[in-house]
Amino acid sequence: MKPIGLEKQDSGETPAEQAPADEAAPAAPVAEEKIDFSNVVVEPLFEDQVDFETFSKSDFRAVKVLACEAVPKSKKLLRFTLDDGSGTERTILSGIHAYYEPEQLIGKTCIAIVNLPPRKMMGIESCGMLISAVHKEGEEEKLHLLMVDPHIPAGAKMY
Predict the structure, then answer these.
(1) Extents of the domains making up the chain
(2) Which of 8, 81, 95, 96 has the fewest CB atoms lying closer than 10 Å?
(3) How many Å apart are CA 155 and CA 114, to the nearest integer?
(4) Hey, how many other C-beta atoms are within 10 angstroms of the C-beta on 94?
């Protein structure tokens, strides 16, 4: 018996050349980007402690960015339309336009605190806060919106 795929080919092509076009070649290993944190400065930790009952009142949820746009007449604000899993779209404004363009964020899965009281900014009611990480590299402030695995569904609770 001959193994499958090793029969003599009449076309003169090797079995690899006859492979269906929709089969992808194995991906080459991706080298992980090396990040230099030696110049990073982070804010000191709070000395005050929060009891568990107070902390557990904060409702952190995964949210999907349905739409994102710059707020007219504002240099900083982006207006997010979010799926928070409730079936009703949520609007959150965030002052991160210096770090992100709106089109970069559509479709991303982020983390928001959703039970803050609504707050009007530039005449628009913001219902929550997106969570970001902030640090300094030298004198430059850096901000990274917390984005998580896209497999996490909108509305998933964070603990």
Answers:
(1) 58-131
(2) 8
(3) 10
(4) 26
- CB of 142 closer than 8 Å to CB of 36: no
In tens, the pLDDT along 2-13 reads: 445 444 444 454
Q: Per residue in 89-122, pLDDT tens?
A: 999 999 999 999 999 999 999 999 999 999 999 9
How many helices and strands in the chain, by DSSP H and E? 2, 10
Which is more confidently placed, 101 or 15? Answer: 101
What is the secondary structure of 1-16 as a DSSP string? ---TT-SPPSSS--TT
Count of residues for the chain? 159
Record the pTM: 0.76
Closest CA to 86 of 117, 108, 59: 59
Strands 89-94 and 109-113: unpaired
> In the chain, what percentage of residues exceed pLDDT 90?
72
Let me know: does 131 contact 146? Beta carbons within 8 Å.
yes
In sequence order, which residues have a C-beta less than 8 Å from that of residue 145 and are 6 or more positions away? 94, 96, 99, 100, 105, 108, 110, 130, 131, 132
